[in-house]
Amino acid sequence: MSFEPRSIPVDPDAKGALASKGLDYRLIDPSDTGALDGWIDADHRGFHHARPREVTREYERRVMGERRLHGVFDPGVPDPNVPVATVSSWPTGLSVPGGRSVDGWAVSSVTVSPTHRRRGIARAMMEAELRSAKQAGAAVAMLTVTEATIYGRYGYAPAARAATIEIDRRRARWIGPSSPGRVHFVEPAALRDAAAAISRRAVARTPGEIDRWSGILDRMLGLVDPDSDASRALRAIRYDDEHGQPQGFAAFRVTREPNEPGWAEFDVLAAATDDAERALWRVLVEQDFVSGVRGRLRSVDEPIEWLLEDPRAVRVTEASDHLWVRIVDAAAALGARRYGAAGELALDIEDPLGYAAGRYTLLASADGRAVVHVPRADGSTDGAGAGSSGTTAAPKRERSRARASAEGSGSRSAARAAEPRSLKLDVRDLASIYLGGVRPSVLARAGRITASSNGALELADRMFASTRAPHLSIWF
Ligand SMILES: CC(=O)SCCNC(=O)CCNC(=O)[C@H](O)C(C)(C)COP(=O)(O)OP(=O)(O)OC[C@H]1O[C@@H](n2cnc3c(N)ncnc32)[C@H](O)[C@@H]1OP(=O)(O)O
After folding, report:
1. Contact 329/354 with Cβ under 8 angstroms?
2. Dist CA 64 CA 184 (whole Å)
3. H-helix or E-strand containing 18?
4. 3-state secondary structure of 74
5. What is the ipTM of this complex?
6. Proportion of the chain above pLDDT 90, given as a percent
7. What are the CA-CA distances from residue 116 to residues 83, 122, 331, 373 (Å)?
């Protein structure tokens, strides 16, 4: 990814709104180390982290230097170099059903100093980020959240969940197939290149994952501060297939009291193949001298329960919202993913901020590709998406092929005469069904989606289904 963080100008509306409160909202120049360090200090303070040590600061400079950083400055505070509010953002791919990716805008590091809270600073920054996302050509904006009540007001909604899974070691008798390759212990530093390649493939096959940025693997593998106790406790394993090709890795640590069996805990298990996923799980759950294994940020449909004789050895101790998505360009977003069933479905989207409002008609063919008819300012519609992540108008031939496939040969004329089946939904509900994380019929039962008929709801469930449950396995 190559992105010039300052290629989009500072949002004039947010600048004006904050200036009226005596505050200066501005972009940080990453080559100005003093300004960058002030921003990093504010970010750490905002998330209640300790002041960064030099190794952490150097890492943060490297990672944050590639992002678009805004700070809000108050000239009246004792250290005016440290902003009273921060936000970071960057363009990145989001994996969607069908092994494809959509252009996304990641938002992170949203902090407002407790001395300046509830004056509308976060709102000004968040609304500016949506305008920047639109300007950058992103179809969706996304974030992970500290609290689930903050971001709905900007149109974000939970789109992929994550689970904490615990396995009771004594009951974990493996009955799954043996993988043909081998698992090896490796030094974390030696794993870096293979881990990057494996992660790219693991991300591509999992809707809900976002592209990894340079530096995140250093954090996962304990390479940011390798001499710290936490990094030295980290053990890394790699799965090589029967041809010796690396296909998966995990990093775990065993926490324990002296002479007591401990818990093997991991936040990272990335697999490019099912063989790799099974083999890594197996080594983790078959360790001796541990009472249990705890995996964080795992998928809500992890297959581990089906790989052990006693399914009750597995407990999901937490499962909650993790990735939050905001649809910024509905045509591009809807056109990027593949659909689980052929059909024609109209979506009447309400969006108080205007980005995605209007009627979009989805025409999905049996191969999962969809043409999206988008509203135009004059009230007419135009074709867009065409199953790609772009928003170019769908070629006529492609549209008629999709329509023919969606309608089926027997009922073609009847279907053409009828109004398309439709759903009425808020932009947040669209975000929640977008990756297949929840069925539209569940949101209809919750009174959030209104369908034109039971048939429309049933079709929507089938169309928006994803073979693989959406899953994001990192915080960002
Ligand atoms: C993507 C991420 O980075 S997630 C990390 C979020 N950051 C944190 O949790 C760090 C600690 N918290 C903070 O820094 C701040 O309290 C923030 C960023 C959550 C809020 O900043 P503020 O400037 O106080 O928010 P602001 O005054 O703009 O409020 C905007 C709206 O959000 C609401 N809001 C603010 N904080 C919260 C909260 N914690 N829970 C629910 N609603 C909230 C306000 O009531 C307001 O609602 P309204 O405009 O609809 O009436």
Report:
1. no
2. 33
3. helix 12-19
4. coil
5. 0.97
6. 87
7. 11, 10, 38, 45
> Which is nearest to 11 in space by CA: 62, 72, 63?
72
The yes-or-no verdict on residue 403 having pLDDT over 70 is: no
Pocket test residue of 110, 121, 472 for ligand 1, highest count of atoms within 8 A of CB? 110
Would the CB of 153 count as within 6 Å of ligand 1? yes
Question: What CATH number matches the domain at 12-138, 3.30.720.120, 3.30.830.10, 3.40.630.30, 1.10.1040.10?
Answer: 3.40.630.30
Place of tokens 């590091």: 109
Q: Could you tell me which of 293, 285, 295, 182 has the C-alpha nearest to residue 239? A: 182
| The two three-digit tokens of residue 118, written as one number | 């509830």
Q: What is the pLDDT of residues 101-150, one digit of tens each?
A: 999 999 999 999 999 999 999 999 999 999 999 999 999 999 999 999 99
- The yes or no reply on domain 334-464 and CATH 3.30.1050.10 is yes
Tell the CATH topology of 163-322: Aminopeptidase (3.40.630)
Taking the C-alpha atoms of residue 197 and residue 144, their distance in angstroms, rounded to an integer, is 24
- Expressed in angstroms and rounded, the spacing between residue 431 Cα and the centre of ligand 1 is 21
